[in-house]
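Quick one before lunch.
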Amino acid sequence: MGIERAWVRVLTRCIAPLVAATTMGAAQAATPVKIALTFDDLPAHSALPPGVSRIDVAGRLLAAFHDAGTGPVYGFVNGVHEEREPDSVGVLSLWRAAGHPLANHTWSHLDLNTHGLADWEADLVRNEALLQRHMAGQDWRWLRYPFLSEGETPEKHVAARKLLKAHGYRIASVTMSFGDYAWNEPHARCMVKGDAAAVASLEASYLKAAKDSLDYSRRLSATLYGRDIAYVLLMHAGAFDARVMPRLLKMYQDNGAKFVSLEEAERDKFYAADFKTQATEAPTTLENAMKAKGLPVPKLDLPFAELDRMCR
Ligand SMILES: [Zn+2]
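Model of the zinc ion complex:
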């Protein structure tokens, strides 16, 4: 049984690219849309539905990565979760055992815009022993800013970048996001109520939001540069994310996506600012790049209000 399944997987892998190449448009097949998947808030993000553990969530995510052939996926860690939720210990080891890297999201998800730089630096450094242990000899010095807060003043923004540079970090920018985190709490509530219809509607709205954000980022990139930059997609390691992950990854692949590593995506010249200290003028998001050129920033409509009302 196990061996048969393994063979089906091998065959599927061999055949899938051929099928994809013949069914996709010629332009899409020639120039895939490069997307680096990144997952924040490991090892414990948002609410769990009844009967689902943090280990289950990680296992489902990792199985989906494997089946979709994503290659390495960075998980951004807040070490404090292991103290708050001892059941989440083991998630980081699973992630590493599956061949995926880990990086820094600060120890306690501290918001740079509402905390002093020294406190924020201490929180960043406090997370390092855990990362060193799991990533011995490998590249974990990537920082994903909690709340994507890069400092509320230009001075603090630059000071934080200098500090990160001094600690050897590069910044993992975000150029694609659909607010995936916002589906996890309503999902847990709807599962408590056993409302299967509501869960199905959550799945549909999640996949629609992901497709809308793919189109949105591509439209901005086309307007700005006349090409697709390599995108860095922000996701979260939540129970609902894990539930929908196989379908989500298929949606991206059906739309011409090729998953690449964070390192590969950040080699795109759009991200040059992520490696510099004096970067206040250089945009790190597509929206800011639009503003810098004096272009109107279109709105990406996401159903947050509706999600917040569901299964109350
Ligand atoms: Zn986060």
